[in-house]
Amino acid sequence: MTVELGRYGIWIPAGDATAELAREAERLGYGTIWLGGSPTDLSIADAILDVTERLSVATGIVNMWATPAEDAATAFHRIEERHPGRFLLGVGIGHPEATAEYRSPYATMVDYLDQLDAAEVPVASRALAALGPKALTLAAERTAGAHPYLVTLEHTRIARERMGAEALLAPEHKVVLDADPAAARETGRPGVAKPYLRLRNYRANLARLGFTEEDMADGGSDRLIDALVAHGDADAVAAGLTAHLDAGADHVNAQVLPRGSDPVPALRQISEALDLA
Transmembrane ranges (predicted)? Predict the structure, then answer.
C-alpha cells in the first residue's frame, strides 16, 4: 500500500461529504474518508484534500458502468499530482439491477483494471469492491486489495484467508449510537434493507455467510441487523469496529446511520472511545 488509510475511517455518501466534515474527521483522528454512492465527479476529493493535511480520501466506489476507466484514470492523476499518496481509487461493478447493460461481472472488472493499467494508475493506489471468492482473489492480484460493503465479521475472516496476508482489506460497517437494542435495530434496518436486501449480489453474499431467506425478509431479522450494524453506546460500537481488525482487516470504515443525519456527534464519541485523537 502506498496510501496510508489508518485503522479507522468514515464512509459517507459523496454528496454529504464537506470540507467541514473532513476537517473535523482529521481532528478526531480518523485516517480516511470514503466517498460512497458511486460518485462520478471526484472534485470533492480535491476539496477535502485541499483543506486537510493528513487525511486520505478513497472512493467507495467509482462504478465501472457509470465512469469510463479513462475518466477515472484522469481524475486519479489529477488528484495524485496535487496530493501525492493521499488518494485511493476504489472501483467496482455495482449491481445488475441498476445497469441495463450489465455484462459478465468478472470479465468487466478484468477489462476495467486492464484499462487502468494502460492509463498507468498504480496497482497500489487502487482497490476493488469485492464480496465473493473470485472478486476477492482478483482484488488481491490486481489492486492493493478489497473494499467489501455490507459484510459481517465472518466475511472479514474469510476474505483475509482468501486474499492472503499482504492484500489490503478495508470493509465498511454500519453503526448506530443507541444503547437501546430495539431502537437501534429500527434505526439501522432501513440502511440495510433499502436497497441492499433487494439486490441479488448482496443477497447471494449473505446466503454464503449462512443467512436464510427468512433472515433477509421484512427488512432483515434481528440476527442479520446485529451482524451488519454495530450498535450500543460508544464503547460497544468501537468494539464492533475493532472486531473487524481483530478478524483480519487492515482498516474499517464506519457509516453512521441514519443517513442524512449529522454524523459528527456519533463520530466524536466513537473517536473518544477508540482514543484516536
Answer: none
